[in-house]
Amino acid sequence: MSITEEIQRRRTFAIISHPDAGKTTLTEKLLLYGGAVQLAGSVTSRKNQRATTSDWMELEKKRGISISSTVLQFDYNGYRLNLLDTPGHKDFSEDTYRVLTAVDAVVMVIDSAKGIEPQTRKLFEVCRQRGVPIFTFMNKCDRPMKEPLALLDELERVLGIGAFPVNWPIGNGFEFRGVFDRQTKQMHLFERVVGGKYRAPVSVGSLNDPEIRGQLDEATFLKTVEELEMLEHAGEIFDDAAVLAGKSTPVFFGSGVNNFGVQLLLDGFLKHAPAPKSRVMGGIEISPANPEFSGFIFKIQANMDPKHRDRIAFVRVCSGKFDRDMTVFHSRSEKKVRLSSSHKLFGNERETVDEAYPGDVIGLVGHDSFGIGDTLTTDPKILYKEIPRFTPEAFSYLHNPNTGKYKQFRQGLDQLLQEGVIQALYLRNSSIKVPLLAAVGPLQFEVVQFRLESEYGAESRLEAAPWSVVRWLPTDIKEDDIDALSLPTGSKIAYDIGKNPVVLFSNDWSAEYFAKTNERVPLSAQPVQTARE
Ligand SMILES: Nc1nc2c(ncn2[C@@H]2O[C@H](COP(=O)(O)OP(=O)(O)OP(=O)(O)O)[C@@H](O)[C@H]2O)c(=O)[nH]1
Ligand SMILES: [Mg+2]
After folding, report:
1. Could you tell me the strand order of the sheet in which 492-495 lies?
2. Element (H, E) at 391
3. What is the 252 CA–ligand 2 centroid distance (Å)?
4. Residue 49 pLDDT more than 60?
5. What ligand 1 atom has the least distance to the C-alpha of 43?
6. 366: exposed, middle or buried (C-beta count within 10 Å: 0-12, 13-18, 19+)?
7. Label partner for 100 (CA 20 to 30 A): which of 315, 369, 373, 510?
8. What is the DSSP letter of 260?
């Protein structure tokens, strides 16, 4: 196969939404229908039940929520899919946002009983800014849901995006029977299977097929027919260009847990989602077909496999061909490195991979100097600057109660810092040696504690720190000028990991007061990118 053909068959996408809308469940069902697993795992995994492939982390299984994004690569129908399941909780959104830089499309999952929830809205906004095409899955139609027309209206009104229903639900709640495919004009009626472990048996036929009709009660049938006629009258047509520009979203209805509508979503998505495209960086357009290899690291995760205890850097390949053992230029160290330990990923399972193409996400092991955001390329002129940084809003000291385990504690903490789970700050002129941690949300501290214990055998204790706002000072500010600042009561100067000075405030009001009393010192809410020497 030529490189162009390899690029054309790649589909790299993330599943996003508010917590609990059913992303991990849908991911699992896409794997089932994509032939990548034989038996779909359950999110509410009870003992002895197979857990999901996607939520593999100890704490995820315990809590039944996703904490970290997962990469799943598999082949289906001639396509190579790189699917990324993301966490919905806002405390973990930094991970989700990083994933959005690595994908070419998203599937937005909506709980049909709830409509568009706040976190979905925020994630949608990021996709819109990046111009990422969005496909919508209206999930949980097996529960009393909002009227489908109202859901479409909500997409248009709340998100300001055109919505095109590719299929339409037949019945809802307990009476939810399946969907009508508006493109082939076929009814798909499903049967529920216990636990949704296997594909749901389906009967397909036209609207007037007596056998199909016989399976529906009169009221459901008439309502479906009436709604379909209304949609036809509206006369909208599927507009591929608008979808690719992120201006319109194809909408699929279904129920992930019951396997209803999953096949139609998978096939519809693959038909309309884009293959990897060019990226523009610093005014230069880098086409995936560019013969020079390039990619960037968007995620780092350690200890995915308890047998290996190593760290994986996740790379999104953007151009050229990746060959195992190739030598590339690493942007952060400005050195050449040989990439010998490369893997394809499937949850926490991995397999050596010898070659990869644009769109692929591969895992590289054994490079301690790799950090999130780094570019790897055979052409040093290529430099990606994709990774956004977030302003922490939660602060806490992390004590090590067991001095005998100092080494494990420090090693674990350094690793989690490198993964970007949390950031560390160092108070200025302070003798306190206890690490001060900063995170987007407090749940991240729990993750740190849990992982320190389970992966490094190190206990820890949190102590609330009295700040809730951090602002960056200008990078070129002199130490004398810092001394001369007039700080509101309770505020403190600290340095981030790149030695950039920041001010910690107890609240927004205090930060505003500082801005008024120190007018010549502009503060930035955005973390500074450059490190001070
Ligand atoms: N009734 C019903 N429940 C569903 C459906 N899909 C998922 N669920 C349930 O919704 C809950 C949350 O599902 P998850 O797949 O973990 O949701 P998520 O979006 O991955 O959640 P986070 O990753 O934590 O944001 C679980 O209890 C699922 O069993 C569905 O189609 N119908
Ligand atoms: Mg999940």
Report:
1. 461-464, 394-399, 436-439, 423-427, 492-495, 501-505, 469-472
2. none
3. 19
4. no
5. 16
6. middle
7. 369
8. B
Separation CA 333–CA 354 (nearest Å): 25
Residue 516 reports pLDDT greater than 80:
yes
Q: Residue 74: CB partners within 8 Å, gap ≥ 6?
A: 31, 34, 35, 36, 80, 81, 83, 346
Ligand 1 pocket residue status of 40, Cβ below 6 Å: no
Please say if the pLDDT value at position 370 is more than 90: yes
Compute the distance between CA of residue 57 and CA of residue 135 in angstroms, rounded to an integer. Answer: 27
Quote the tokens at residue 266: 């998978």
DSSP, res 497? T
- pLDDT score at 1: 85
Whether residue 500 is predicted with pLDDT greater than 60 in this model: the reply is: yes
Ligand 1 centroid to 32 CA: how many Å?
16
The finding on whether 141 has its CB within 6 A of some atom of ligand 1 is: no
pTM: 0.92
Average pLDDT over residues 170-196: 92
Share of the chain above pLDDT 70, in %: 97
Q: How far apart are CA 313 and CA 302, in angstroms?
A: 9
Question: Tokens 């097929």 map to which residue?
Answer: 209
Residue whose CA is at the smallest distance from ligand 1 atom 13: 22
Separation of CA 463 and ligand 2 centre (Å):
29
Residue 425's nearest CA partner among 387, 394, 456, 380 is 394
Q: Report d(CA 173, CA 176) in Å as an integer.
A: 5
Q: Please report the pLDDT score of residue 45 as a whole number.
A: 42
Residues with CB under 5 A from ligand 2 (ion): 23-24, 66
Percent of the chain with pLDDT strictly greater than 90 = 79
The response to whether residue 68 sits with its C-beta less than 6 Å from ligand 1 reads no
Q: CA–CA separation, 74 vs 266, rounded Å?
A: 13
Does any ligand 1 atom lie closer than 6 A to the CB of residue 63? Answer: no
